[in-house]
Specification:
The complex is a heterodimer of chains A (319) and B (236). Chain A has 319 residues and is α+β, with helices and mostly antiparallel strands. Chain A contains nine helices and four strands. Chain A has a four-stranded antiparallel beta sheet with strand order 2-3-1-4. Chain B is built from seven helices and ten strands. The chains are: A alpha+beta (319), B alpha/beta (236).
Chain lengths: 319, 236
């Protein structure tokens, strides 16, 4: 059986005579050792966890941006009864002003019945607004892109409509933004810690796998191999192990996100699916997410190769 | 070829394991390096194959002061030296053929240019039918011969062997000695580190005798035993 010191299967007494052809030679660094397989497993697991963290942070960031833009795309005109005129006329006047204002996509004054249903949770059903000085609400949907001149609209309304005021939900948006930014910052912190843990565990696992290869480094050194040649052989081998482990872990995470995205779009329209989507967005990381995960795989492969080179150099110093 | 002048060696802050060594190894020469265990034979061999640098003194190898050499220059010089290790140091995942061909591979040579040479040498050392065997299943003698073949395949100018007969029976030891003598005749300088007196008695060659880190005696087996002071340099 193979072991750490003898990283080959000793039950094989000889190789079948091979064809003498370029590329047929046994690699100088054994390609299939227990240390190598364990390293691939460690890299795959850590890359999978780091990819999940990256994807989760990206989704959180996208969802927070969605919430903010949804709220920021709506402003409300409130017309309060002042006792000086008919509130219905004032409401219509405000709606007309809004319709004539640039970058307003939709203007919808709430009817009396709709206003009553808004107050129903507090005042009960069967409410007659005629008896109460209840303000009327006009919801304006904004055209996506640059915001309209809300200060100008506010001024126009206060000059021409009695009791009218404009609420751009600034306070609520600011609170939402602060909350979303805090969530994304916490996610980024976790991502940084996760990546640091990945880099460290991959580095130590690489060093462990390299320890079994020390005799090879020594022999190569003593038969006249230059340091660059030895480091290159190991770096190439460990880069391949890193790519293999990274592709398994990162590929697994990508497949998971793809399946989740597909399942999310399949559930759209159902009650549960819509509720889920309103909280977490589309559960898709988008092409940017896949690019980030691919970059992460390359980063981890590079860390593995770099750690092996560093360990070889240390070994060469001590030979 | 090799010149030591007042060379001393210590590991870390420990005592000197080699002291005031001065000697030469001439081209096409043959010598034994002997002495009791712990006398410093392996340390002296490590100095000779540039595995370590001396703490003091001057070592000149092939006309180069080793203290002034870069790491890459060390590697290039090492290619002119063949080393047979006591523990063989064959790579277990490579066949006998690949182990012997390794020096050519690290030089970046194309396999077509050395294939026949390697097979011929393996046949010459009696391993013609073990070309595709892996080292873990070779006997001690076969490993020894494979290690020697790897050491000489690139036709080194200097061959260093550390207890090359330590793991083999007397008959094989004799055959290996004949192999070294053949190499010597073909122009390679040989240094064999051994404390096998019967082996040294089979070939009349100068002996470097190390004792407690000092080079005490230097003489031929046929000479009378002449205790001498340190710093002997019989070539001068």
């Amino acid at each position: 059986m193979a072991d750490q010191r003898n990283p080959i299967d000793l039950s094989i007494s000889a190789r079948a005579p091979r064809e003498f052809a370029p590329g047929n030679a046994t690699p100088i660094v054994p390609s299939d050792s227990i240390g190598g397989r364990a390293l691939v497993a460690v890299i795959a697991i850590m890359t999978f966890l780091a990819s999940l963290t990256t994807g989760a942070v990206m989704m959180m960031h996208a969802s927070a941006a969605d919430w903010q833009s949804e709220i920021a795309r709506e402003v409300t005109i409130q017309v309060r009864p002042t006792g000086k005129g008919d509130i219905e006329v004032e409401t219509q006047k405000a709606a007309e002003i809004a319709r004539g204002f640039p970058r307003i996509a939709e203007v919808r004054p709430y009817t009396k019945a709709e206003s009553a249903s808004l107050l129903e949770p507090w005042l009960g059903s069967g409410l007659s607004l005629d008896d109460l000085p209840v303000p009327r609400v006009i919801v304006l949907k904004l055209v996506p892109g640059p915001a309209p001149d809300l200060a100008g609209l506010r001024k126009l309304l206060s000059e021409r409509v009695a009791g009218a005021s404009l609420d751009d939900h600034r306070g609520f948006v600011d609170k939402m933004r602060a909350m979303a930014n805090s969530a994304v910052a916490a996610g980024l912190l976790i991502l940084v810690l996760m990546l640091a843990a990945t880099v460290l565990s991959v580095t130590f696992a690489t060093r462990g796998a390299m320890a079994a290869n020390r005799p090879i480094v020594e022999v190569l050194h003593l038969i006249g191999a230059k340091d660059g040649f030895i480091a290159g052989e190991f770096q190439r081998h460990f880069l391949w192990l890193g790519i293999k482990g990274g592709a398994i872990g990162g590929g697994g995470a990508m497949a998971l996100f793809a399946i989740a995205g597909f399942a999310g779009s399949w559930l759209t329209g159902t009650a549960g699916g819509d509720q889920f989507a309103s909280l977490f967005g589309s559960f898709s990381i988008g092409w940017e997410g896949y690019v980030a995960l691919a970059a992460q795989i390359l980063l981890i492969a590079a860390v593995t190769a770099g750690a092996s080179r560093h360990t070889v150099n240390q070994t060469l110093e001590s030979v | 070829m090799v010149r030591f002048e007042n060379v001393g060696l210590r590991y870390g802050l420990g005592p000197e394991v080699l002291r005031d060594l001065s000697f030469r190894i001439e081209p096409r020469s043959f010598q034994f390096l002997t002495g009791p265990s712990g006398a410093g034979k392996t340390s002296l061999l490590r100095l000779l194959f540039l595995s370590i640098r001396p703490t003091r003194g001057l070592i000149t190898l092939f006309g180069h002061d080793v203290a002034r050499l870069s790491k890459d220059a060390f590697a290039t010089l090492r290619r002119r030296i063949g080393v047979v290790f006591q523990d063989f140091r064959l790579l277990d995942h490579m066949t006998t053929y690949e182990n012997v061909a390794l020096p050519f591979r690290v030089m970046g040579r194309d396999e077509d240019s050395y294939r026949n040479e390697v097979i011929e040498l393996l046949q010459w050392v009696g391993l013609g039918d073990r070309i595709w065997a892996l080292p873990p299943v070779l006997s001690g003698g076969e490993k020894q011969r494979a290690a020697i073949a790897r050491a000489v395949i690139a036709r080194p100018q200097l061959l260093l062997a550390d207890e090359p007969t330590g793991n083999v029976d007397p008959e094989l030891a004799q055959r290996l000695l004949r192999l070294f003598i053949e190499l010597h005749k073909s122009g390679t300088s040989i240094v064999i580190a051994t404390h096998d007196v019967s082996l040294m008695d089979q070939f009349d060659a100068p002996r470097l005798v190390l004792q407690e880190g000092r080079l005490h005696h230097y003489h031929y087996a046929s000479d009378d035993y002449v205790p001498s002071t340190e710093d002997d340099d019989v070539y001068d």
